[in-house]
Amino acid sequence: MSSELYIVATPIGTLSDMSPRAQKVLSEVDIVISEDTRTTQKLLSQWNLHCKKLVSLPGFREKEDALPLVQQILNVGQAALVSDAGTPAISDPGAYLVDAAHKAGIVIRSVPGPSSLTSALAASGFVAPRSLFAGFFPREASKQQEEIEIWKKAAPCIIAFFESPQRVCATLATLAKSLPPTTPVCLSREISKKFEEHIRGPLGSFQGMVQPKGECVVTLLVEPTPSEEALGGLEEALLYLSFLVQNQQRPLKELCKAAALPFQISAKELYQAWTKRHKE
Questions:
Q1: Residue 124 included in any domain
Q2: Residue-range definition of the domain harbouring residue 263
Q3: Whole-model pTM?
Q4: 146 and 109 in a common domain
Q5: pLDDT tens digits, residue range 102-121?
Q6: Are 157 and 254 in a shared domain?
Q7: Are residues 51 and 80 in the same domain?
Q8: Spatial separation of the C-alpha atoms in residues 185 and 177, rounded to whole Å
Q9: What pLDDT score was predicted for residue 230?
Q10: Domain boundary residue among 56, 86, 114?
Q11: Does 273 map to a domain?
Q12: Residue 228 in this model has a pLDDT that exceeds 50
């Protein structure tokens, strides 16, 4: 029988989000590998679950511990990986272990469940052809600008990143220096908890915001900006408009305004070009 590693999502705020399958896996595997055994033990106790063996995989040690843990999995057969909350290995410990498990021929099983990333993306209501997860926003100014330039090159896209409540106001102020004040933003906090909130508005409207409580996920809709040397603005706008028409149920003239703005062309000109092309 092949060895297996289950990646198990755990609640991020509401205990009842723990799936029956997740409970079954945690009670049946030979080893439960945890970001913090104290946190995991509390979760197991709340559901009256008893695991055979609980071992720690803290973030500061995950790279060194990956291979020894893989050997344990090969020796016993089945293991489950959990983080303190949400889906493991997404800006939480576990990626090195999963990578090493793949290389060792261990079968990977995913037990889906709570994830603040996917919850925030869905709650934003933003539409774009791609989404980019940026982990935690960098602390160094030079790294921040490098990150923002990556976003601009990927536009049109939805950017999602994690941020602490202590830093989120300063981070949004930093973004306002490099992105248009009209950039759509959704600030998600306390996801699945009593005071869950999704605050949506243009980037400029967040200036002077009172520091929120609870861990935050920030999503932005980054629109393309035309190159100074680009002469094909109308063609680029038509491509973007085509995407909007396929994905948004709004009047064509409204979509033309939205598509024309990033390319600094006339919405009327774009509307005329679109209607002419689709009559031919």
A1: yes
A2: 233-277
A3: 0.77
A4: no
A5: 999 999 999 999 999 999 99
A6: no
A7: yes
A8: 14
A9: 44
A10: 114
A11: yes
A12: no
Q: How many domains does the chain have?
A: 3
Q: Are 221 and 126 in contact (CB under 8 A)?
A: yes
**Which of 85, 114, 143 is the last residue before a domain boundary?**
114
Measured between alpha carbons, how far apart are the two ends of the chain, in Å? 62
Q: Is residue 44 part of a domain?
A: yes
SS3 for the chain is: CCCEEEEECECCCCHHHCCHHHHHHHHHCCEEEECCHHHHHHHHHHCCCCCCCEEECCHHHHHHHHHHHHHHHHHHCEEEEECCCECCCCCCCCHHHHHHHHHCCCEEEEECCCCHHHHHHHHHCCCCCCEEEEEECCCCHHHHHHHHHHHHHHCCEEEEEEECCCCHHHHHHHHHHHCCCCCEEEEEECCCCCCCEEEEEEHHHHCCCCCCCCCEEEEEEECCCCCCCCCCHHHHHHHHHHHHHHHCCCCHHHHHHHHHHHHCCCHHHHHHHHHHHCCC
Residue tagged 């305004």 (tokens): 257
Tens digit of pLDDT for each residue in 54-68? 999 988 888 999 999
Angle between helices 252-260 and 233-247 (to 10 degrees): 140
| Same structural domain, 83 and 151 | no
- Look up residue 223 and give its amino acid: E
At 84, list the tokens: 């303190």
Give the pair of three-digit tokens for residue 28: 């049946």
212: CATH: 3.30.950.10
Residue 231 pLDDT grade (very low, low, confident, very high; cuts 50, 70, 90): very low
Q: Radius of gyration over alpha carbons of the chain, in Å? A: 23
The pLDDT value recorded for residue 243 is: 74
